[in-house]
Design brief:
Layout (H helix, E strand, L loop, with lengths): L2 H27 L2 H8 L2 H12 L2 H25 L6 H35 L15
């Protein structure tokens, strides 16, 4: 393990240990259902900490993903009651469009990973510089 990886690994390890320890203490002190009710608020805290710790683009993308998901779910319920086309026809058509978009997305990710591998091969953990030009 590289020296630059020790702090992130230790930070995540301590956080996970605290999560497990505090959950077990809570279960030992109060009803399990109460602990699970409180732990059901985890998505709220995920959003809160994501907005604080992640970049604006990362947080914005995650929120946009939720909006996109609901923008698909709600109209699909409305369109499913239409009689002109079978439900499977509508679902299959939207799945085909989604699959095409996912294939483009996978290719983009593959190209991005190839570029990243080339960059990592030429740099160590602590070096800074522009990904494409290498200018500091």
């Amino acid at each position: 393990m590289a020296v630059c990886q020790i702090v992130p690994v230790l930070t995540l390890g301590v956080a996970q240990t605290m999560r497990n320890l505090l959950t077990n203490i809570s279960i030992g002190r109060v009803a399990v259902s109460f602990t699970h009710t409180i732990k059901a608020m985890e998505p709220f805290f995920t959003v809160l900490f994501s907005s604080l710790l992640l970049s604006e683009i990362g947080f914005g993308s995650a929120m946009a993903s939720n909006v996109s998901s609901q923008s698909h779910n709600v109209p699909s319920k409305k369109f499913m009651v239409m009689k002109e086309c079978l439900r499977s026809c509508k679902y299959g058509s939207s799945s085909g469009v989604s699959m095409t978009q996912n294939l483009f997305s996978l290719e983009y990710q593959r190209q991005k990973n190839l570029l990243l591998e080339k960059w990592v091969a030429g740099k160590s953990c602590g070096e800074d510089g522009d990904l494409l030009t290498g200018i500091r």
